[in-house]
């Protein structure tokens, strides 16, 4: 009997651990991925168009981050927009997108080089 208790306990603990891991990665209403790393991170997915002297072109803000960076929130986006306009590369940057964070998914707009919630 003692030999059968150990495998039974291992099976129960393994199943409990698997269930905990599965529920840890399921979405809750208004949130995406419950895992703490994702809940604390903020990602911005945005399509931007920069205008210089009447000529428009697509702007990829991730080209202006340090290598390996991928988390970009609205304050960092605004800093990059400020740099791009202050350097004279663009007169104006506009676009739309969304911000993914612990508060869920919210729309974001860039109007005249300013991030608007």
What does the average pLDDT come to? 82
- Which shape, going by the Cα principal axes? rod-shaped
Structural class: alpha+beta
Total DSSP E strands? 5
Order of H and E elements: HHEEHEEE
Question: What is the C-alpha radius of gyration, as a whole number of Å?
Answer: 22 Å
Strand residue content: 25-35%
Number of helices: 3
Comma- or semicolon-separated keywords:
alpha+beta, rod-shaped, 35% helix, 5 strands, 117 residues
How would you describe the overall organization of this protein?
The chain is an alpha+beta fold and 117 residues long. It is 35% helix and 31% strand. The protein has three helices and five strands, in the order H-H-E-E-H-E-E-E. The protein has helices at 2-24, 36-40, 74-86; strands at residues 43-52, 55-59, 92-101, 104-111, 114-116. The protein has a five-stranded antiparallel β-sheet. Strand 3 (92-101) and strand 4 (104-111) form a beta hairpin. The protein is rod-shaped, with a radius of gyration of 22 Å. The termini are far apart. The model has no long low-confidence stretch (mean pLDDT 82).
What order do the helices and strands come in, and which of them pair?
Blueprint lengths: L1 H23 L11 H5 L2 E10 L2 E5 L14 H13 L5 E10 L2 E8 L2 E3 L1
Antiparallel strand pairs: 1-2, 1-3, 3-4, 4-5
Sum this structure up briefly.
The protein is of the alpha+beta class and 117 residues long. The chain has 3 helices and 5 strands, in the order H-H-E-E-H-E-E-E. The mean pLDDT is 82.
């Amino acid at each position: 009997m003692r030999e059968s208790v150990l495998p039974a306990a291992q099976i129960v603990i393994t199943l409990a651990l698997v269930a905990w891991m599965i529920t840890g990665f399921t979405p809750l209403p208004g949130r995406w991925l419950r895992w703490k790393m994702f809940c604390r991170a903020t990602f911005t997915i945005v399509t931007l168009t920069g205008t210089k002297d009447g000529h428009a072109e697509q702007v990829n803000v991730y080209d202006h981050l340090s290598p390996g960076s991928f988390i970009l929130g609205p304050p960092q986006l605004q800093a990059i927009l400020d740099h791009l306009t202050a350097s004279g590369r663009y007169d104006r940057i506009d676009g739309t997108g969304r911000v993914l964070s612990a508060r869920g998914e919210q729309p974001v707009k860039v109007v005249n080089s300013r991030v608007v919630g």
